[in-house]
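U., I forgot to send this yesterday:
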Amino acid sequence: MCLQRQVVQIADGGLSCRGSKRVRAALAAAVGGMLLCPAFGTQPARANTADNVVSGNTDLTSSGSYSAGSPGAGSDMTFSGSYSSTTFSDANGFNLNIGTLDDLDATQSLTIQNGTASTTGALTLNGGGNSVAPSTLDLLYVASGGTMNIVNGSGTITVSLAASGNLDIAGTATISSVLGMGSNQITKTGTGNLTLGAANSGTGGFVISQGTVTVNGGSNSGNNALGSANNLVTLGTGADAVTLAFTSAESGIAQNFVIGGTGADSITNSSSNTSGVVFSASNTVMLENNLTVAATNASGLIGFRGTLSQLGGNFGITIGSTNAGTIDLRGANTFTGGVAIDAGTMSFNLGSTGSAGAVTNGPAGTGTITLGAAGSTAAATLAD
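Result:
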């Protein structure tokens, strides 16, 4: 049985399963097809070989920087010691084609960059069976307490994920360089924070299974931080609390979203930019779990322009107690769990369809609107 969330697509006369179990069943029934489930999610053998980065040499293109010589496509490039210099670069243009990247150092903040001006480098992670991380599926692993930054530097770096797998962040990681995910499904695991800041690409699905993913693009470059337009983003898969956090204005988020799992799923925006975080009118948000949203700055905004629907339950939206800004709903939404406004302002820019007691769709779905949580002293406002 296929357990991973992926986009459902026509393939070889049937359907390949790329969606939650309920989504797959509903879509298969709708088209009268069958589901062909790929084997992704099966743990491969620990087939790679660890190649430790040694202290004292920061040129990552030099074989002298490693315990086992220059790493290759079957190597786990591993940071595991105390480093006298924590910025790692190159001397002759950056080009690393390795299996995985692993930060086992739990104390230092490490940075990988292209140090050669006017050049475009490449960091390719091929997977292959991680030998040092918690999961053999980990493409990138950062241990608790560790920090890994992948930045452009004097030149630029393109980070390519050449296989489906995990970005397993127990500590903190930032990838501000462009991230190319291809058609691979990428899953954020680990309870730490992963920050993405570029106009990335990917069509195989992006799953946030644990912890936090922060989008910090600026000037709308983060609109595609989670993949190409129409890529399927799944927020939550199990009981873990997960958060999608925005720290910059992104006014044209173009992915489709599934809000899943059974844990606390949250979307936040801490930016003061009045353009806000806006989910495109041409894309959808499917609720398979309740969603909490909060714009934590008074001038901030989170706007949903497309349709919010639900599958397999009675799910709704809570405007969280940390909300100080405005949450704006404009779609012909059909979720039934209602809207609870605990703090801040909820604005509607579209009337509901149907009649009193028999609403068929509207900005707040078909459920009730609750103004102010029980016991809350925060101000809550409903506006149009």
